[in-house]
Amino acid sequence: MFGIVGVPIIEVAMAAQAAGIRYVGMRNEQAACYAASAIGYITGRPGACLVVSGPGLIHALGGMANANMNCWPVVVIGGSSDRNQETAGAFQEFPQVEACRLYSKFSARPSSLEAIPSVIEKAVRTSIYGRPGACYVDIAGDMVNAKVERNSQRSPNQPVFFHPIGAAYGRAETVLREFIETSGLPFLPTPMGKGVLPDDHANCVAAARSRALLLADVILLFGARLNWMLHFGLPPRFNPNVKIIQVDLCAEEMGNNVRPAVALLGDISAVATQLLMCVRRDGWKYPSNTEWWSTLKSKIAANAKISKALALQSTVPLNYYTVFHHISQLLPHDCIIVSEGANTMDIGRTMLNNYLPRHRLDAGTFGTMGVGLGFAIAAAAVEASQNTGRRVVCVEGDSAFGFSGMEVETMCRYSLPVVVIVVNNNGIYSGVDSETWKAMKQMGEAPPVSLLPEARYDEVMKAFGGRGLLVRTVEELRSALQLSLSDWERPSLINVLIDPSSDRKHPNM
Amino acid sequence: MFGIVGVPIIEVAMAAQAAGIRYVGMRNEQAACYAASAIGYITGRPGACLVVSGPGLIHALGGMANANMNCWPVVVIGGSSDRNQETAGAFQEFPQVEACRLYSKFSARPSSLEAIPSVIEKAVRTSIYGRPGACYVDIAGDMVNAKVERNSQRSPNQPVFFHPIGAAYGRAETVLREFIETSGLPFLPTPMGKGVLPDDHANCVAAARSRALLLADVILLFGARLNWMLHFGLPPRFNPNVKIIQVDLCAEEMGNNVRPAVALLGDISAVATQLLMCVRRDGWKYPSNTEWWSTLKSKIAANAKISKALALQSTVPLNYYTVFHHISQLLPHDCIIVSEGANTMDIGRTMLNNYLPRHRLDAGTFGTMGVGLGFAIAAAAVEASQNTGRRVVCVEGDSAFGFSGMEVETMCRYSLPVVVIVVNNNGIYSGVDSETWKAMKQMGEAPPVSLLPEARYDEVMKAFGGRGLLVRTVEELRSALQLSLSDWERPSLINVLIDPSSDRKHPNM
Amino acid sequence: MFGIVGVPIIEVAMAAQAAGIRYVGMRNEQAACYAASAIGYITGRPGACLVVSGPGLIHALGGMANANMNCWPVVVIGGSSDRNQETAGAFQEFPQVEACRLYSKFSARPSSLEAIPSVIEKAVRTSIYGRPGACYVDIAGDMVNAKVERNSQRSPNQPVFFHPIGAAYGRAETVLREFIETSGLPFLPTPMGKGVLPDDHANCVAAARSRALLLADVILLFGARLNWMLHFGLPPRFNPNVKIIQVDLCAEEMGNNVRPAVALLGDISAVATQLLMCVRRDGWKYPSNTEWWSTLKSKIAANAKISKALALQSTVPLNYYTVFHHISQLLPHDCIIVSEGANTMDIGRTMLNNYLPRHRLDAGTFGTMGVGLGFAIAAAAVEASQNTGRRVVCVEGDSAFGFSGMEVETMCRYSLPVVVIVVNNNGIYSGVDSETWKAMKQMGEAPPVSLLPEARYDEVMKAFGGRGLLVRTVEELRSALQLSLSDWERPSLINVLIDPSSDRKHPNM
Amino acid sequence: MFGIVGVPIIEVAMAAQAAGIRYVGMRNEQAACYAASAIGYITGRPGACLVVSGPGLIHALGGMANANMNCWPVVVIGGSSDRNQETAGAFQEFPQVEACRLYSKFSARPSSLEAIPSVIEKAVRTSIYGRPGACYVDIAGDMVNAKVERNSQRSPNQPVFFHPIGAAYGRAETVLREFIETSGLPFLPTPMGKGVLPDDHANCVAAARSRALLLADVILLFGARLNWMLHFGLPPRFNPNVKIIQVDLCAEEMGNNVRPAVALLGDISAVATQLLMCVRRDGWKYPSNTEWWSTLKSKIAANAKISKALALQSTVPLNYYTVFHHISQLLPHDCIIVSEGANTMDIGRTMLNNYLPRHRLDAGTFGTMGVGLGFAIAAAAVEASQNTGRRVVCVEGDSAFGFSGMEVETMCRYSLPVVVIVVNNNGIYSGVDSETWKAMKQMGEAPPVSLLPEARYDEVMKAFGGRGLLVRTVEELRSALQLSLSDWERPSLINVLIDPSSDRKHPNM
């Protein structure tokens, strides 16, 4: 449970702790709700987000929207006004159940103490059944300290874990790997599908993504949606005659934007298993010597050459590719990578490999800025409670960090050993260097994209007792990252000053 | 105009700058919208908040809700998806106009480039006419870089007049002061009404607020709402037979919760002028020697004695009263005080006097946490552009500061000389000291209200080039505040470590 | 109170009757809500509409929308599910308070029996204060038969009648008449403003409406909105340089679409009184011999000539003008005219004079079809209870009648002596004659606008014991109308078969 | 396509006709939308409902709500204001897409003419994929007569497959019958599940419904929801230890209110086929000689005895049971029965057998009054176009008939040979006889449940050229029904006057 306490839900947090639920107090409900939703993705069971009435709940709407778009389960619990003050202008009175409607699968207020268990059960169950998403439960302020006989409650059912969607979420990794290896097909992961099969798998064609999409004549789509992330499945990014075999849990998703040649409705895992059986039975295998493979492989090689050339530049200030190249070399294979930002997330996605499913969290389908630190805190809290020995690394653009930077205090307070890396180019998309900045300021207004040059985000971490490191060179970066990765007692923030004019993704890639 | 740029509204920000509108880039749309709304309160004309689609807009809903509750004008402008991608799963696609309905007086999307001026005119006009509030205008992404013949536009009207509400907002200060002084009546300001008449005015009975409310037999209500802030106007906080003369611009507010003996519908200023004329004509004056005055004065004296006793304690760690006592002594009379927090705001309101109208901004009617830094930035931006020589002082609880602490970077970036004072008691409501904290952590979970003890919020300010000062004693506090107030080049943050168990407001007051 | 009983609100209707409230049971909640809203217009106090849960309430939304657009007060009371079944799939469970949001000024559910009086008070007050409109109160099913101590209720306030809008609604007729006569200005009523001054007043220029709008250089607008009904106040229907003096109760209405030269915010009556004082003081009078008056008068004369020529045609089947001409001759001056339909309402508006304010109700600002019989029932119920001796005449197009024709049973059941006149042209806009109909049917599908030729709507009235009359000629029409107007015991329906190809409004008028 | 034409959608109706779509013009959008939704249930493909802007659309919301609750596909197409008049107070301007949100699965406006095909495709597909429901498409008025190059459209996909829910809707009848007969299990149909297996099947225990629910220890639930219609699956109507095997297409429905012992997610047909295979493989059969069967059979016999006794009474006025007994004897086995009302529907459901799936339509899950005539018109229109020779019989309570009685004109206009039977007890639930009515009227107000005694609904049908018959005795009823059933040229209405105090369902049944 993540949240911020206040009237009227302070006792709810304490009761949760007393019942053995871990409560993590955050600094803004916005980040708290992003954190809670990440729990759902990582564990398959919804985290809870506890917020106060009115503005507290409204701050959490971003998290609900993002969870719904990502199909992640989360349950938000909001305190609300005392019922006998409703319509009278109560403290933070707001139509909360109604306010959550657009952002949730289920939004309700228990009408009595007796009804709370069954409404909570419905919220939890609905959040994970079918296509997962956000649910909201409103608790009237006057109920918080009221009491009820345990026997008078409708007995709640404990939800059983059920029907997740998406290849990563659906835990279909084993069967998908077998299917890919048996069939010999090339594959392309979506951003958060990275790691279902390792990014360095021989059949992965992520490094030739545009070419692969454009030239494919048949695409087997496992749970991915043909929305903006896949260019709607339409020309000019796709072959107009491409045949799509669409596998999805959600019937309404079938045929969205592009009519599939074949639609297979069902759990990814179940469908992939059946496909695997067919492939095995028929002994079918896509030959490794086709022209298609050659084309992709030569494109992959060409792209690798370009990015390697960029990655080997070590002039200061550094560029994105060099930074990610060295980070990539040092990160453990089983680390959880959280990432957000514009260039930072885009280029980072191509440079930082994932090797395990559900080990990457980013701005997602809704492209939400401000999720990074919340996600990292959630991941670290899970790791802490499960003692898995996995690192959580949070790779942030400098603008992205600003959305929830105060949450480093939360990391310090709970001794969560997150390694935050801020790839700092002094702005949104790109900024300017200190001298240009000074000149521009004297002449008048700075451009809207500019942030303070060389801002010391590392000092923010130090302010709360974490490790803060400022790096400008490859050596400093490597040494800072090694140091941070070796420390399990407290969080670190590595502030990597890069060239503010560092190019966005290379145009030929 | 406050906001965060990104696709698709980056060019809107640049065009605004080109048109001479000052653009302030913030770190989270949440704080940006709080800032924009404060412009409306301070200047009487709406500020603009510019946000990207989807999550960017959703982050701004808190600011719209708060503005609406406070009856402050603000216009939010949101970019949205390209129209030809709607329903196809466009980037950050969301029903934005609909999402803003609950939070606004007017929410619309111009159907064409030609319609933009008239929709903006409606939004600006609606935001300030009648009871002011939030308005939303949605700009489809594909419109941003499209062009239109200037002549083909419907010619927009420039809004001409407006009808603000509330005594502070309505600029009724001159006539209200005359009315009070002519009539000799005691008065009690609501939190943001502080300063309409000076807090140290002889007729102000704020220091005996509870007693004054309870014993009044007639109350003349100038624009204040009988909601939770005034205990709904009902017993046990009010005399059940109290007669209320209600003056309000908004007909629907009349009789809300309590039926007024007399309802005067109209502009505060106009009504107060008419009342003043009556009082003058009749030569009526409330005698200064009534029992009612004696009761109030003796209660005021008693309360003053209690708070003075508390304020004179200078043992370290300090208590709230001592801190506010010394701050109060040093603040210039014309400074703008922004404040939020629980104890910090409550006690601060009684200890920090206001002498001028519209010089106080706080969590307001909606009790919103997270508004402080945005409000302060807005106030400082106004001061900077008007060169008034007034200081902006932002008095924050430590938890409150966390909601938008990263905005100190914004202050530094724009060289806004805000003086932020964090009254730091290590938690929400109250925290624990470092030793207790360590012990509790070893034993298990910390209480939900606790934050990191002695967190160095001052270092956060220093990270971005501002002045950061940590103070524990009266001397340090005075010297830090004097130093900060003397610097007009950059913001300061004074981190005042107080006794984590420092009492909440004294029970007898 | 109008409505349809059922679970769970049957006892509410009975309790209302026991408390002396007249309950009129209707046949569809749609018509019931239109009826209830008309009470608000006619009497200035809101009628109530009582509906069952789910679909019953949804059927009433049209009435709420229409009331809100017309600025008429109405209070809808909806039963809802038992609270302990909420979220479980209760009978007709629906988020009713939320569903009414878009259609109301106030929508709430009392949280307890004790809260009912104060929520009802808020609904009633809000419906009439400021700009009137619809309010919704939700009554949980389990509250209906529950009991409460009378003393435990929050004491409700009785709303005082307050601030209506519009010249008709605002009861400004006396002062407006004096103003017009003193100033000598020509005037033009909006559809439901007809009768504030008599339509046959020497200064009325309704018969030259288009010309008057187009040539005016100054317009004094009393509460009318510059929406579609007044062509938005824009060219080509208005002089582009027209100066508008806008008088309105609602600040947000000021400057809507056109910037007024002068905006006068306030009650119509009060403002008109002040204007009258100025005109009198200055002895100003608009001369009767201006070119403007000549232009208008010659246009009026020309139009009168055209319509007289049409009205004098008595060939069978009749045309609209002849029908309305004879109806007009026979209707008493103080009758209440309800009207809806396309041609029937449009042409009828120009041909049927009103002589008294609030004596005309039609499809209104929202152009709602289906309102006629409900409005007529409401008007007749008011007349019955006040024994005023005024007739209620309901002039319906045949398509319009079909929306709520079953409500003639309601008229019969309550012995409401409404005279319904169906001007029957066999279709929407226009239909075809019987022979064409038969031919078309044999050939395939009939056009979407066609209804059954010569449908016997009169027989529908007879089915329930009312008088039904079929007329085709002038003589039959006059005799049927005279007979109907002489009968105060029961309703009549005169089915006037006119030429299905009868022209729409004459193009030169 | 059902609807009512007007501005701006009249040309849409004509274009639909030109494209070969049958258009049925109704008398109220409320009934039109109920009709359109029934098409979806009967044919498995959505009907369309075409409505004008503002009130026209609002009248259709009831139909959308009912369709959504019943999980029936329907596509509502609404005209809206011209885009260039939006926000200016256009004719019937309303936020229509937003207004439909609560009542639909998908609600959108195409942003351009080019986008219309793909938005319609999404609406149609979404209405039938997954759990079916209502979809809304908004067409801006100015688009109606605009033109576009055919080639510039995004090519729409024709939806290909679909996943209906419920045993009746899912066309699982063949396999379910085999399953029941192979397994020997007793079964109980839900109201609209009647006919999936014939009501007179040896294993049907509908006549002992309460007993069957209460005593079952295992329930196999095929697509039925455990909502109010099944008493939430909870005590006291169910054994608290009952084990439920829940088969549903919709994951979120699983475990709603009661945790199933087994949850089988999938198409009813597919799951039933698998269960049948298991039963066959194992040779399992529920013995016919169990105590359970004896109990149910003796209860069935007892109930049959009671209802037979009631049905054999032929004293005038008749009671419900007698009326239904004779109707039942005369109806052809393949007729489609539409029914609504309180007692009429409840008792009729037990007395009127269904023998084929999807041959019964009634007030449904949402308990909507006013659906009957629309449903009957839809069913008759389908029969007319398919020439199946099946009768449509519409059994209405008298109050229920009043909601949409004017639609008999529609039946007459289109020569749809529906047999409407109004079971007329002079009121809602129950009324009073004529003498009592007169006495009550003289004394003051009639009870809210009373309608006009012996109202001649048959005359309403005659008014439009249909056959109207008034019956009071068994002989009259039988003869009228035989006559009506023999006429395929026009509709009939049999007005059956029954005892107004005729008992509701027998308490022991």
Automatic annotation (TrEMBL), chains A, B, C, D:
It is an enzyme of class 4 (lyase). InterPro entries: DHS-like_NAD/FAD-binding_dom, HACL1-like, THDP-binding, Thiamin_PyroP_enz_cen_dom, Thiamin_PyroP_enz_TPP-bd_dom, TPP_enzyme_TPP-bd. Coiled coil: none annotated. It is found in: Peroxisome. It comes from Oreochromis niloticus. Its EC number is 4.1.2.63. Homotetramer. This is 2-hydroxyacyl-CoA lyase 1. Residues 1-97 form the Thiamine pyrophosphate enzyme N-terminal TPP-binding domain. The lineage of its organism: Eukaryota, Metazoa, Chordata, Craniata, Vertebrata. It catalyses: 2-hydroxyoctadecanoyl-CoA = heptadecanal + formyl-CoA; a 2-hydroxy-3-methyl fatty acyl-CoA = a 2-methyl-branched fatty aldehyde + formyl-CoA; an (R)-2-hydroxy-long-chain-fatty acyl-CoA = a long-chain fatty aldehyde + formyl-CoA; 2-hydroxy-3-methylhexadecanoyl-CoA = 2-methylpentadecanal + formyl-CoA. One of its GO terms (molecular function) is magnesium ion binding.
